[in-house]
Amino acid sequence: MNEHIQRPPAEIRYADELARLRENDTDDRPPGWALSLRAARRFVLGDEKLGVSRKFVGDPSLIDRSLVTLATNRGLMLVGEPGTAKSLLSELLAAAVSGTSTLTIQGGAATTEDQIKYSWNYALLVAEGPSTRALVAAPLLRGMAEGKVVRFEEITRCPLEVQDCLLSPLSDRVLSVPELNGPEAMVFAQEGFTVIATANTRDRGVNEMSAALKRRFNFETVFPIADFDTELRLVEAEATALLKRSGVGAPPRRDVLEVLVTAFRELREGQTARGDATDRLSAVMSTAEAVSVAHAVGLRGWFLRGEPGTAADLVSCLAGTAAKDNQEDLAKLRRYLEQRRHGDQWKALYEARHLLPG
Predict the structure, then answer these.
(1) How far apart are CA 183 and CA 59, in angstroms?
(2) 199: closest CA among 161, 163, 149?
(3) What's the rounded Cα separation, in Å, for the pair 85 and 58?
(4) Which residues contact residue 244 at a Cβ distance below 8 angstroms, ignoring those fewer than 6 apart?
(5) What angle do CA 84, 103, 98 make, to 5 degrees?
(6) Which Pfam families does UniProt cross-reference here (predicted)?
(7) Cα–Cα distance for residue pair 285/308, rounded to 1 Å
(8) Do the beta carbons of residue 315 and residue 301 sit within 8 Å?
(9) Phi then psi for 287, rounded to 5 degrees?
(10) In this predicted model, what pLDDT tens digit does every residue of 197-250 receive, in sequence order?
């Protein structure tokens, strides 16, 4: 059944690795944790001896600080540019600490407190009145009652009053259900409960967090990958896995991926590898977007022509990611291709610029 899930959660994708880590974990564990801090670190950063793959490319000290934060009574806030794997990191940390990463709240303008805390089965509510049988637990209530990590994605996209419903659970470790009576009216957090939230630095001004809520989180910034070779290896590995899962029988071409990663880095930083200034696009040119483009290039080449994607495919797929509906970004992309037309693959990109829309 899991073979047909488009993207299984981390605890399913890496179930064998988690089992090996648990079997070999002899260190002390914080109360309510499925793994010790060192075992959780190995799950995220890899361990060749145990056959555990590295899943997050970034500063190891970030992982250490994040795990220590989760072992305290403070929440963990991961901030950074879009596409820097904040959500992936929160998923991996939740799977390592709790054994499950699916207690997730997706923040947005329409997110309500019911979707965060609890709601009611209205048929039972009308028939029986307020009761635990009629209560429908949302991720926060479940996480507190079961002692699990709750993930809150894009928290700053939620209205301020919705964000602040986390204040009492994070400080007093209790959630009130005023509709119920007696001991059932209070849900006390069990050992292991905590919250991991994420926020994009580009969107933090949408609904700025209150000072009271900020005090209940430790903030960690996730930076883009600084090294070209590291980013290239990551894009190649992720694109290869996605193409295999999509039924593509050929891996992505290394030379095409080199051009792709170079273009993304230069358009993201506004400077070529030689130090020449170039236009910086307003679109998000992240590693995650580069993986998506590499996936699309491979699909286009394989299913349309039965071969790996080419530089011409890259131009076609790049437009939808880099320019989207922004005509100014499209013009910048054209100028960039004209500026960067030296070398076989770059020349092919330049010659295929007519495939850009407009």
Answers:
(1) 45
(2) 163
(3) 9
(4) none
(5) 85
(6) AAA_5
(7) 23
(8) no
(9) -65, -40
(10) 999 887 666 788 899 999 999 999 999 888 999 999 999 999 999 999 899 989
- Alpha-helical (H) ranges within the chain are 10-13, 15-23, 37-45, 60-70, 86-98, 113-116, 122-128, 139-146, 160-163, 167-171, 211-214, 228-245, 254-269, 287-305, 311-318, 327-339, 344-351
Q: Which amino acid is at 121?
A: N
| Residue tagged 């790996």 (tokens) | 308
Instruction: Indicate if the pLDDT at residue 332 is higher than 90.
Output: no
Tell me which of 19-33, 175-189, 244-258, 331-345 is least confident. Answer: 331-345
Structure tokens at 341: 């037309």
Give SS3 for 41.
helix
Take residue 157 and report the two structure tokens written for it: 């996209």
Alpha carbon distance 337, 176 (integer Å): 58
pLDDT of 102-125, one tens digit each? 999 999 989 999 999 999 999 999
d(CA 201, CA 136): 33
- From 224, 217, 210, 204, select the one nearest 66 (Cα to Cα): 217
Q: Is the pLDDT of residue 296 over 80?
A: yes
Q: What is the DSSP letter of 34?
A: S
Closest CA to 63 of 196, 182, 178: 196
| Dihedral over Cα of 330, 335, 338, 343: its sign | negative
The sign one gets for the Cα dihedral 165, 218, 106, 173 is: negative
| Angstrom distance (rounded) from CA 322 to CA 326 | 9
Q: pLDDT over 90 for what percent of the chain? A: 66
Residue range 333-342: mean pLDDT, rounded: 75
The Cα 124–Cα 264 span in angstroms is: 54
- Angle formed by the axes of helices 254-269 and 228-245, nearest 10°: 120
Give the C-alpha separation, 278 to 136, whole Å: 53
**Model confidence pLDDT, tens digit, residues 162-201:** 999 999 999 999 999 999 998 999 999 999 999 999 998 8
- Helical H runs in 211-253? 211-214, 228-245
